[in-house]
Amino acid sequence: MDKETKLYALLAYCSLFCLVPLLKMKDNEFLLFHGRQGLALFLCEMVIFVVSIILPLIMKPFLFIFGVFSLWGMLKALQGEKFKLPFIFPMSERLVL
What we know:
The protein is built from 5 helices and no strands. By secondary structure, it is an all-alpha fold. The chain is elongated.
């Protein structure tokens, strides 16, 4: 796997940049996997962020957990692995692109 593919897979876990691998290389299975997972993670982060405005003390730890998930996904993308993030992967399979 080349460095460019790994870099695009890493972008999948950087908030809104998750759209870059989904739009850039639609035919690459590795990028599609990480892009879908990154998009599901981003959507979860946005929901938690909005709810944390109303309930800040309860939801802030979840933002931290999703931040750790992003770093975990980035690491696995750079290693060239398809790692299924807990709780995120099942949601990413349901996304229709």
